[in-house]
Design brief:
single chain; alpha/beta; Rossmann fold; globular; binds nicotinamide-adenine-dinucleotide
């Protein structure tokens, strides 16, 4: 079998080499180029394709793959929103993704950022960069004293719960579809309103759906305890950023850690140098001491990248050799 991998980053290469050593029967070609109507010609003669990119995949890419007889397409990430489902269905191309690559990577990062908020790390870093090594007046708060409201108890939310419990914090949770094992522990509250009323920290671990778009809006912030902290490493549009800014201004929300933002693609994964993006909400939030912004990097660990490479390559092999893969996406 022959696989071609598009958009390979330097940090993925050692894992591609490891996979190739473990799969000597498979010939693999890698390229850093993204998969476009122009670069897709390199796939001629291959049996499977893997790719990873933020840009949507052009319909023409799949038309050309089909014309080369390639019926397997494996993305190395979760999201398949850049793929037109009608086009791949019409062409008979099977698509796989890597739905779970390291829940701990994301969960640990959200806890780290919450600790940084509680410990006022951004203020200390700024002070020390100016030569001020006094500890006062940035008195901090302790994680074990918080009531953590976990919204979404899927793969990532459940790991976050374990970590918070290890710190001795009280954890409450809400999910539209409860986890049976977790339910036995009595952790669930019956509604988001109940969670907002009790929590001192609200951390989001739900997907972006019509029902969760702007889940945290003006009305939601108003229902929270004054001084609540917000953590979001799920999807930017879960939060209405203008409402968050207003809630930070009023003090209703005491701080936020955001690894995702509503319009993040114009900022994240770019080197902007000294240029400010044309994104007023980002500029407003980024300037605040009590808001931590990170460039959608919660996933970016050695374990996660390894799993994204290994599982996508394996899925491509399974589709070609067995005709099915447990990672096949049902659009
Ligand atoms: P998951 O599917 O395992 O869990 C999501 C949970 O949300 C499920 O239990 C589901 O029942 C629940 N849910 C769905 N709709 C809900 C609603 N309206 N109200 C309450 N609960 C609801 O997903 P996961 O793997 O834990 O991922 C969670 C989020 O993290 C996703 O949005 C994903 O895109 C994001 N993510 C971010 C990064 C990053 O690097 N920042 C990396 C991976 C995933």
């Amino acid at each position: 079998m022959k696989i071609i991998a598009f958009g390979i980053r330097d940090d993925e290469k050692p894992f591609v080499d490891q996979w190739c050593q473990a799969n000597p029967g498979v010939e693999v070609k890698i390229t850093q180029e993204l998969l476009t109507p122009e670069t897709v010609t390199q796939a001629q003669g291959f049996d499977g394709v893997t790719a990873l990119q933020l840009n949507p995949y052009a319909d023409e890419v799949f038309e050309k793959l089909a014309s080369y007889g390639i019926k397997n397409f494996s993305v190395r990430n979760v999201g398949v929103d850049g793929i037109n489902p009608q086009v791949v269905a019409k062409l008979g191309i099977k698509v796989t993704n890597v739905p779970v690559y390291s829940p701990a990577a994301i969960a640990e990062f959200t806890v780290t950022q919450l600790l940084n908020l509680l410990r006022r790390t951004k203020e200390y870093d700024r002070k020390m960069a100016q030569g001020d090594f006094r500890w006062a007046p940035q008195i901090s708060r302790e994680l074990n004293q918080q009531v953590i409201g976990v919204v979404g108890t899927g793969h990532i939310g459940r790991v976050a719960i374990q970590i918070y419990q290890g710190f001795g914090a009280k954890v409450i949770a809400y999910d539209a579809f409860r986890n049976p094992e977790l339910e036995k522990t009595g952790i669930y509250v019956d509604s988001l309103d109940e969670l907002y009323a009790q929590a001192t920290v609200v951390t989001l671990h739900v997907p972006l759906l019509d029902s969760t778009h702007h889940m945290l809006d003006q009305a939601a912030f108003a229902k929270m305890r004054p001084g609540t902290l917000i953590v979001n490493a799920s999807r930017g549009p879960l939060i209405d950023e203008e409402a968050l800014i207003a809630a930070l201004d009023s003090g209703q929300i005491a701080g936020a850690a955001l690894d995702v933002m509503e319009d993040e693609t114009q900022v994240f994964n770019h080197d902007l140098g000294n240029r400010k993006p044309d994104y007023p909400a980002f500029n407003n939030l980024f300037a605040r001491d009590n808001v931590l912004i990170s460039p959608h990097r919660a996933f970016y660990t050695d374990v996660a990248v390894r799993n994204m490479v290994f599982e996508s390559f394996q899925a491509s092999r399974d589709l070609f050799e067995k005709g099915y893969s447990d990672k096949e996406v049902k659009f």
